[in-house]
Design brief:
Layout lengths: L1 E2 L6 E2 L13 E2 L2 E3 L6 E2 L8 E2 L20 H13 L4 E5 L7 H6 L3 E6 L2 H13 L7 E5 L12 E6 L9 H11 E9 L24 H27 L13 H9 L3 E14 L1 H9 L11 H19 L7 E15 L1
Parallel strand pairs: 4-9, 7-8, 7-10, 8-9, 10-11
Antiparallel strand pairs: 1-2, 3-4, 5-6, 11-13, 12-13
Helix pairs in contact: 4-6, 5-8
């Protein structure tokens, strides 16, 4: 299943049966790449952004990061069905939001990420949810050179990954290489920079249906969030610092459809209320440099810019502006599926 770096043949972990190579492992995570968790220097190859610095700031402050959210459980169940309970590569698995539920539904999941911090969060989630031993294989790997043998997995999940890499087309080629004939690539989102025809469509592929009263209440929240983001980057731009973008406007769905020659949209019934405050989500994440585009911002300049905007907003919008709440409904989950 894995590609042995010593002899180049397919191997199983932890030891290559052909040449005896031992795959290195630290704290239960297989080290299958020597690449750094982030590369913003094109002179060193394709740029990519791993979430080593982001870590827990990727999540809502109000979440218990080890809990499997209902939407993730629903998604994991459908992913497991699509790969027939076989072997899934979750490339760019992050903290295990989908890897853990999919493993709980019977799949063996190769959980690959370039960030050791995110893989550690995945391990905590797997332990908290009592995933059977051996069902998840945490591997530090680079999606630009997936360390698996050709035609070795039944499915690949790439959730919110391709826009973080400056050469996403190469990653798609790698994904297609490791898929068995009939295997499926599954995407949960398109790139953030790709505009949707339906303005109600969220980045996560989940239509947010709200009544008029909620829409009016949420308008203020969205206005403040947008204004805060713009002001933060305005200050940084004046200091000569700009956002980090990789494949931000790369249309993942169109590219994968071209590579595989097919695409099927799978709708997953799901309905739940959604609610959060500015403090619990947006400000928590931005304050911790939890967005990929912040990774090129020096820590000292980030802290100064964030503190300055917080002070300005406190004066302009009142000391309680961060308690403003968004309330809505998430109806329906989607997977875009491409079959080899």
């Amino acid at each position: 299943m894995f590609m042995c770096p010593a002899c180049g043949l397919g191997a199983t972990l932890p030891r290559c049966e052909h040449c005896g190579h031992i795959f290195p492992s630290v704290d239960g995570i297989y080290e299958l790449t020597g690449d750094p968790p982030i590369n913003l220097d094109e002179a060193r190859g394709a740029r990519y952004i791993g979430y080593e610095r982001v870590g827990a700031y990727y999540y809502d402050r109000g979440w218990a990061s080890t809990a499997c959210q209902p939407a993730d459980l629903a998604m994991g169940g459908r992913i497991a069905e699509l790969v027939g309970g076989g072997v899934l590569l979750d490339v760019g698995c992050g903290g295990g939001n989908y890897a853990v539920p999919t493993a709980l539904h019977g799949c063996t999941v190769i959980a690959g990420d370039v960030s050791r911090v995110m893989l550690s969060l995945l391990q905590s989630k797997a332990e908290a949810n009592r995933v059977p031993e051996g069902r998840i294989i945490p591997c530090r790997m680079n999606a630009l050179a997936i360390p698996l043998a050709e035609a070795s997995v039944d499915g690949v999940l790439a959730s919110a990954l391709l826009h973080l890499i400056s050469d996403p087309a190469h990653v798609i080629t790698e994904i297609r290489r490791v898929l068995r004939p009939g295997g499926r690539l599954m995407l949960t989102t398109n790139s953030p920079g790709v505009r949707f025809a339906d303005p109600r469509q969220s980045v996560g592929g989940r239509p947010q249906e709200t009544d008029r009263r909620e829409e009016n209440a949420n308008a203020r929240y969205l206005e403040l969030e947008g204004d805060f983001d713009r002001r933060y980057w305005e200050i940084l731009n004046e200091a000569g610092v700009h956002a980090s973008y990789a494949g931000w406007k790369f249309d993942q769905f169109a590219a994968c459809q071209a590579a595989f020659g097919n695409m099927t949209r799978v709708d997953i019934p799901f309905s739940a209320s959604v609610s959060w405050t500015l403090a619990d989500y947006f400000l928590h994440r931005m304050g911790g440099k939890g967005y990929s585009r912040q990774q090129s911002v020096p820590d000292d300049l980030h802290e100064k810019a964030f503190a300055r905007v917080m002070a300005e907003f406190g004066e302009t919008h009142g000391p309680d502006f961060a308690s403003l709440r968004f309330v809505g409904r998430a109806d329906g989950l989607q997977l875009h599926v491409f079959e080899r």
